[in-house]
Amino acid sequence: AQRVTQPEKLLSVFKGAPVELKCNYSYSGSPELFWYVQYSRQRLQLLLRHISRESIKGFTADLNKGETSFHLKKPFAQEEDSAMYYCALRGGSEKLVFGKGTKLTVNP
Amino acid sequence: ETGVTQSPTHLIKTRGQQVTLRCSSQSGHNTVSWYQQALGQGPQFIFQYYREEENGRGNFPPRFSGLQFPNYSSELNVNALELDDSALYLCASSLPGTDSPEAFFGQGTRLTVV
Q1: CA–CA separation, A18 and B52 (whole Å)
Q2: Of B90, B39, B86, B48, nearest in space to B68 by CA
Q3: Chain B closest CA to A85's CA: distance in Å?
Q4: How far from A87 is each of A31, A47, A108, CA to CA, in Å?
């Protein structure tokens, strides 16, 4: 079975502090992992994917197959990072399996 | 290049009725997926259409059905609506065959069943 777990429903940090949004997955094969973000009143959009190994808006995520994790990190959070973040997995088909999401609030 | 558009944006229906939601895919995308997002949950896969054929289905009953048209736009039909069908319905289009294809989402249709 394919499953994505985001253990934190809410995460609150101060501006300039490091932030880490956790994501664990369950999949027996080699998954594709994604982070999607939804800013207030905007549509769901791709933030980054593990295959690209890139940093977007200062965020990075490393796929750890041993720990089956794909945590999202940013060293210095900004107020504009406040949003809903969803971790998603794609394994063996085109469908995406999403976690329940983490609401990140960056306080001034 | 136009993005994914969905209509209507909001809809209120009565239990037992039928509803049709519409989605226009991003230009050039031949694959459309539908997701249901209940309050406080992540999107849940309903089904996917590729070149007018259903190409995968999630754990939803047969009263959830769909269509894809030659221009790759799509419809989601739900019969015999139940209160639990109240949710945000998202459409996403993509172009398979590329390296880890990105799914582009629409703004969604908010369905309320009363």
Answers
A1: 46
A2: B48
A3: 10
A4: 12, 10, 25
Question: Which of A93, A95, A101 is the closest to B42 by Cβ?
Answer: A101
Q: How many DSSP H helices and E strands does chain A contain?
A: 0, 11
Length reported for chain B: 114
Q: What's the mean per-residue pLDDT of chain A? A: 93
Query: Cβ contact (<8 Å) for A86 and B43?
Result: yes
| Pure H helices in chain A | none
C-alpha A55 chain-centroid distance: 13
| Strand pairing report for B10-13 and B109-113 | parallel
| pLDDT of res. B2 | 67
Tally the residues of chain A. Answer: 108
A106: phi then psi, degrees, rounded to nearest 5: -105, 115
Q: Structure tokens of B33? A: 């997926």
Q: Is the pLDDT of residue B48 over 90?
A: yes
The per-residue pLDDT for range A49-89, each reduced to its tens digit, is 888 878 889 999 989 999 999 999 999 999 999 999 999 99
Among A74, A2, A65, smallest CA distance to A35 is for A74
Q: What element of type H or E holds B112? A: strand B109-113
Which of B102, B109, B110 is the best residue to mutate to test the A interface, defined by the most A CB atoms within 10 Å of its own CB? B102
Contact B48 A96 (CB under 8 A): no
Q: Please state the rounded mean pLDDT for residues B19-43.
A: 93
